[in-house]
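JOB MANIFEST
job_type = single_chain_structure
chain_count = 1
residues = 141
[input]
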Amino acid sequence: MVHYALSMTQEFWNDLFNLPIATNKKARRVLGQMMQDPWSQQLHPEQVRQAENGVHSSRVDDNYRLIWKHIKPNHVVFCLVDKHDEAYRRARRKSFALKDGIVSVADIGEIGARAPSEQELFGWQRPKKDSVGVLFAGYRD
């Protein structure tokens, strides 16, 4: 039997205490099961797409997911509990580091980033129709 070193983030505790009472009970039951075996098929573990490698989710109920990170070989960090879509969105922003046996978790936030439109990206290469030939307009052959 594999023994896992377990850690819980402050964000996880905050999420757990802010859940509705019925969901909180379910989340604590899932947490107890995960302490025994985080890979149990009853928990429906799955990799979180577009997240850092090793970030997984387990089902609390139909609406809520528990997000956790498996750090090889045997460390599990419980990160957050939230509604399905919100949990996955938040999980994609997490970054983990293990140094000297201590796990640090960072939340990578967006700072007004957005993808440029095609016009913004290549607009500088396209001349405007009213300004064609303006650069040499004052010169004659």
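[summary]
The first helix runs from residue 10 to 18.
Strands lie at 5-8, 46-47, 55-59, 64-71, 75-83, 94-99, 102-107.
exit_status = 0
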